[in-house]
Amino acid sequence: MKISPVERITTNASDDSCGSSWGGHQGRIVRTSNNVYAAYTVPGKTPYKKQWQLKHRIAADRWEVIYKAATGREPVHLLTGQDGCLHVVGWSKGLASIWTGKPSSEIFQVKKRPIPGMVKICNKESVPYSAAGITPDGDLFVLSTEGEAPSKLLWALLPSNSKKWITGKIHLDLRFCYAYVFPRRNRSAYLIASRDVKWHQISFQQPIGALNYTFNAIGAWFSDNVETKPFKSIFFMEEKPTIEHPNVLLNAQTDVYIDDNDRTFILYRRQGVSTQGALEKRMLCLSSKGETLYDVELPENTGDFSRLIQIPSGSFYLLGSSGFIFPAGKDGKTFGQPYKIDLDGCLVEYSGYSISSPRTGTSRTNIVDVMFPTEGGKIWRYFNIEF
Q1: How far apart are the first and last CA of the chain?
Q2: Is the pLDDT of residue 125 over 70?
Q3: Nearest to residue 86, comparing CAs of 369, 362, 373?
Q4: Handedness of CA 135, 28, 302, 318 (dihedral sign)
Q5: What is the per-residue pLDDT for 63?
Q6: Model confidence band, residue 106 (pLDDT cutoffs 50, 70, 90)
Q7: Which domains, and CATH codes, for the chain?
Q8: Staple partner for 68: which of 53, 220, 314, 353, CB 3.0–4.6 Å?
Q9: How far from 163 is each of 149, 154, 204, 318, 382, CA to CA, in Å?
Q10: Order of strands across the sheet that contains 324-327
Q11: CA-to-CA distance for 387 and 372, rounded, in angstroms?
């Protein structure tokens, strides 16, 4: 294993409550052939009128802005396809938009298009909680959340061989956010998200000192053809508050990965009566039908944030924000002796690492690109791992 020295991507990322590092489910870095690109937001005139920037790594520790455009409050999503095109998903003037272009040695020409069927940002409090993913063939999938109780997951799929979006809705009693979306072959798709609601919406009084919102459930949905069949709930898990353990957490923001056998690996945090009040970092593995294959606790010294990596040989690795990489075997749960990363004295802050991964269009290779926020979220750093 070879780990490159830590580089600096930017020192001017937005660092407000929905700054460039907010969320964790966004795709922020991709690799196309031998090129690496990163996207982030910078401050605008107001927190609701930011600018996203796209940077190209032109050499070791040398990054160049190749495109920028106005966007809204939240971070954007960066995707790529096997054709080398880059796609950036964001909200421009309250409307969902996608910017698409193919970098060349001459000029980077970008086309901006609206995305139909998405939530519209009508006021400053509106947040789309957007998500985006892409298939190896280039099918684009975008999702946003509308309402709290009741709520909807609004989705749109653009097949690579079509210019027309397919749109739809999933009706829910309560809001789910921070989704990981996985468009798959034959227009099928998986969605995994965490429930994000006010305490009274789950009929429980807000504990003293707790946030206004509670994250205490995880859901998964699947459609084997979004054009002809509605999404169905295939998995639901909840941590109910009790008088003895009122502070509950069941949150899958950390990471979600789907392998070639359609096994879903969910890195999540859990606290409540099931853990006797302790905060646990865990990994849940589901079958393609939503059946639990295993549910294990992660090593103690992974840190607050982790990502699951699978290389072409089929072996898994767990990348921890503590600065350790754990071999995880061919099953994803056989943790071995960790490798130490030299982070150059930097702390990996919320929301942890972003990595080049198949869900954002990067082909699975032995080189994984990593970026992370530090120093309050204004600075983003980079390194890569060669397995």
Answers
A1: 5
A2: no
A3: 362
A4: positive
A5: 98
A6: low
A7: 2-386 (2.130.10.10)
A8: 53
A9: 34, 19, 47, 38, 35
A10: 306-310, 316-320, 324-327, 339-340
A11: 19
